[in-house]
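JOB MANIFEST
job_type = single_chain_structure
chain_count = 1
residues = 302
[input]
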Amino acid sequence: MVGVAGKNPSPVASLQEFFEIMRAFKESAASGVHGNCYLMPNKVESLVSEGALSFAAGETTLVFFERRDGFTQVHFLRKEAADSEAPDKVPLGMLAEPREDPLMAEIPFTAKSADEDIPGGAQESIDFLARCGFSIVRISRRLSLRSIVRNSQPSAPENGRGLDTPAPIEVASVSDAASISRMLEKGFDPFCDYIPTDRELRGILSSGRIYCIRDVSGTPVAFLHWSRSGAASELKHLYVEDGARGHGYAHMLVRRYLENLPSDVKTYFLWVNDANEPALALYDGLGYRFDGRRAIELTKGI
């Protein structure tokens, strides 16, 4: 395994090197590993091409640093029953010592119910990050929809109030980028939610994966962003401006999204903050249910 010189992590030079680093570390772990390293090959290739992925390796800890816009996301593996942290002075120091850029880490796990205790491996990872100065900022759950009920008639809004006329829903265009970007900044946490860069947002708009509702001036006041991977589709962002709430726009946007998905999409899911009770109520009313996936987000230096 390539070593780490000085106090800076070493860049990952290629996808092949990434696999070699992971394989060498796992083979040296006699009793297994725990952590949150779920970097997929296509993502690694993109990060390597951008020079945005680096790593630090020690005897018991392997850390990958993914440079993001304004912060660094941490992916790590740690050997089970690691009694001594001394051999990992370099990688642990990069997590524990003060840094100029904030750090973020996400710990995913499975649970039988949304109220179930955090399992041992995930708790060990959380405790490890806590020792390095990280704090929990959010706990989320994944919701999935088993089937789509297609209905061309407008549905009742989630708060029970009626509509004078149904609001027209459009596919947003690239010219809406500034308005959508402002709503993303107001409605989502840059450290815990995936917020696309300006270039990414324009690509998403060009692909037709954002629906919006406009006010009388033509400015978007509500939008829904969705993505697709194979036969699965994720509802990634849903936001309604304060002045446009109370008209059932969120409910209408979700129904339009579901009813217009290609017929070969078989899995429909989203992630939602446990503390976001209005969103939980909205998605429950639309048939989304907890599917066993949880995630805990931790940050440091924010």
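[summary]
The longest helix spans residues 15-27.
Confidence is low (pLDDT under 50) at residues 1-6, 152-164.
exit_status = 0
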